[in-house]
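Put briefly, the fold is written as integer tokens. The lines below illustrate.
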Amino acid sequence: MASECERDGRGEKHRCCRRRNRERDEDGQFARQIEAGDVLAVFEAVDGPVVTTTDVSDVLGITTEAARQKLNRLVTEGELQRRKTGRTVVYWQVTPRDE
């Protein structure tokens, strides 16, 4: 997903370049559910070791509320950890050291 940005050619990962267009069916519903693996793949699409709800929302084409719910479910399941830094909550993948 880390392709060169068409806007500036510098290889930057702008929001416009990270967003996926989600396919819809004939009724306007999303054709595919977002799975845990899709959320975890966002870590590869963004710079740095942490993601935010906005990162997940931009990359997967979902609302920030849906992103928050999916991230928090992964925290509950032990796949991610989270920490509030100022007004932003950041999430990171659990490593053996974190357990």
Remarks:
- DSSP finds four helices and two strands in the chain.
- Strands lie at 80-85, 88-93.
- Residues 79 and 94 are 6 Å apart (CA to CA).
- The longest strand covers residues 80-85.
